[in-house]
């Protein structure tokens, strides 16, 4: 089974996580360096809102990363591409689109 999609997606997720973590750190630094009351700024999004949005994206990507690492583990033990529910083969097309898929379309 071709596991290149796992590695490719994992590399993209790691790059996105690194960028988001830098953004989050910059937002935190900006909020600590400023005593402005951004919660009542009519001009746009608050620093708190931006911080929470970035934190939510980080959490989602960390979950996706965990799933990809688990998929790599299944590839190593030979169970990658096998549906965890019915034991059937997960089509390569599904794995190309969703490298961390644990179930076939019928069971998913």
TrEMBL record:
PROSITE patterns: ZF_DKSA_1, ZF_DKSA_2. InterPro entries: Znf_DskA_TraR, Znf_DskA_TraR_CS. Gene3D superfamilies: DksA, coiled-coil domain. Keywords: Metal-binding, Zinc, Zinc-finger. A zinc finger (dksA C4-type) spans 83-107. It comes from the Bacteria. This is TraR/DksA family transcriptional regulator. It comes from Mumia zhuanghuii.
């Amino acid at each position: 089974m071709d596991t290149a999609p796992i590695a490719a997606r994992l590399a993209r997720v790691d790059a996105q996580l690194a960028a988001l973590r830098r953004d989050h750190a910059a937002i935190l630094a900006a909020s600590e360096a400023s005593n402005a009351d951004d919660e009542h700024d009519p001009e746009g999004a608050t620093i708190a809102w931006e911080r929470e949005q970035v934190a939510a994206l980080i959490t989602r990507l960390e979950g996706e990363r965990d799933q990809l690492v688990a998929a790599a583990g299944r590839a190593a033990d030979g169970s990658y591409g096998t549906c965890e529910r019915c034991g059937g083969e997960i089509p390569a097309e599904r794995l190309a689109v969703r490298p961390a898929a644990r179930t076939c379309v019928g069971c998913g």
